[in-house]
Structures are given as structure tokens and as C-alpha cells.
Target: Alcohol dehydrogenase-like 7
Amino acid sequence: MEVKQSSTTAGKPIRCRAAVARTAGEALTIEEVIVAPPKPYEVRIRIICTSLCQSDITFWKLKEPHGIFPRIFGHEAAGIVESVGEGIEEVTEGDIVIPTFLSDCGECVDCISKKSNQCSKYPFEISPWMHRDGTSRFTDLEGETLYHFAYVSSFSEYTVVDISHVTKIDPAMPPNKACLLSCGVSTGVGAAWRAANVEPGSTVVIFGLGAIGLGVAEGARLCGATRIIGVDVNPDKYEIGKKFGITDFVNSTSCANKSVSEVINGMTNGGADYCFECVGLTSLMEEAFACCRKGWGKTVILGLEKPGQQLSLNSLVVLHSGKTLFGTLFGGLKPKSDIPLLVKRYMDKVIENLT
Model:
């Protein structure tokens, strides 16, 4: 299919600025880079807003084999379609879009199923390349390849993203709010709404009140949870969390001689219906499981721990407790169908808060 190219830059390389990570853990440098035109089934996007996610920091610090440099990080963003490659029908130049690290091809068994949001045609990996041909669309002015991150690389004025990672949204959505639906807030809200399916009247515990944790609180509130307990090391998070539905707060550094799970079990008469770990520490994952109610409790892992870290659980407790522990990417949401729903709920003021 021949694509109508209306922009003056369509089909041409674009020279723009980007924040480039040259070495693990060292400061990013603002450089001029070259962004190639999109290939078939790709979209070149002008980034309007981007935000920083803890996952960017985690991988920015890592050395080989997981840390690959030089790289353009960033994966929470909103932007405008500048041009499209061949075969693109669902977006066109000028559309407002959200790129996501998780793909949604709409064709594979997982994307068609209501049970999964993990595309098997374009599976999620922390890849330095584009999905379809295993190459990069970025070079510096010397011609050196700059690697992608999480299929988005939004710390650049322009980026190229596969169409399976692009969702068109209502242009009335404020871009500084829309970019938060690209990862953190969607992950949190989705974890309560889709992944855990929090029931009305339930008790929820959230470990970590960052963007994802506050998103979980908002999602749990929308689902009708009556008690939402936030756990954090920063007491100021309680006042912030109240706006998102937090009803109780536990400062994990002020539990005297008790563990956090012991404190939570005492507060909830035996454990919470749902526990969400949103920090990315195996110790907190284990604590979340320990204060999840026996018989029916669900523990949901959202935080990203360093690759290779292991959970340690008592096998007898797992067998006898009847609890469930699972992880979820993007809160179980399907980007192309669920992000527009979240946008509508925000525009309709059903979702009252975005961090």
C-alpha cells in the first residue's frame, strides 16, 4: 500500500536532540542525533511529553549483559504522529498517540484472548532493537548506532515505534497526563482493575506509593475497596495517597520490633484480600505474600527487581495457605483497547487523579 505523506519531513531522516546514555550510571548528555524514517508498519512520533520511570533508572545503572550502550532511554510518553511507514492504517499524520513498551498486535492467540495481554507475535524483551528487523532507527552525528529502550526511547524529540506499540487517543487529553498512561499509572490502575479484579468491600495493601502504587490505589478505589493501606518509608506519602483513596498508612521504618507483615496482619485481622508490591524488592515481595490473607488472598508483583534476583518462599506455607502470587506486565491491560478506556474515564472525571 502506498502511504500518503503530507509532512515535509516524511520519508527523510530527521536531525533532532536526544538525551543519550553513553555509559552505565553516568549522566545523560544532550546530543544531536539522526532519526531514520519509519519502515513498513512503523510510526515516527514527535514527543510532546515524557516522564521518568524507575525502570529507566534500573537499566541505566546496569552493565553488561543487560546494560547496552549508547542508548536512548524513556518509555512513558505522549506524542504526535509525524509520518508513517507502509501498511499503516490505524493512525495518520497529526494523530495524538501513546507509545507503550508492551505490544498489542491484535492477531496472535494472546492478543485475541481475554486472559492475556502478553503478545506472542512481538513478545516483550528489554531489546535494543526494533521488533521486525532487529535494527535501530537512531544514529549519532558520527554515524554510530544508538540503541533503543523498551521499544519507545522517548528521551528524544523524535522516535520511531512499531505500530503494535502505538495507541491513538482523544486529542483533548492533556499530554502531560496522557504520558503517564504509557506505563506507570496504567500499570497501577490496571493491576487493581484487570489483573487482580479487586472486589467491592475488600482490603488492599500497597507496598510503595510511587506512580504505580498511587495508580493501584486509584484503581482499588474505583473497584470499591473500602480499606486501602499504603506502605512507604516516606510519611509525606500518606497525605498524597489520601487523594487517591489511601485510608491507612504504615511507615515501614517505624514498626518497632515487628515486621511490616506482622503489623499489617494485626491491622487486618489475619491479612489483606489483595497485596501489591510496587517497589521492586524481593524482600517486600515476600512481605506482601506474608500479609496476604490465607484461603483467597492475592499478591500481585508490579515492581521491577534487578535481573536474576530470586524470591524465597516457604513451600509448606505456599501449599497450606491457599494464597495466590503472580506478576503482571502493564497491569494486565491491553494497550490498544484499555488505554482509550482510561482516557475516557479521566475525561469523564471517573478517574479523578493522575500523578
Remarks:
- The radius of gyration is 21 Å.
- DSSP finds ten helices and 15 strands in the chain.
- The longest strand covers residues 42-51.
- Residues 1-5 have pLDDT under 50 and may be disordered.
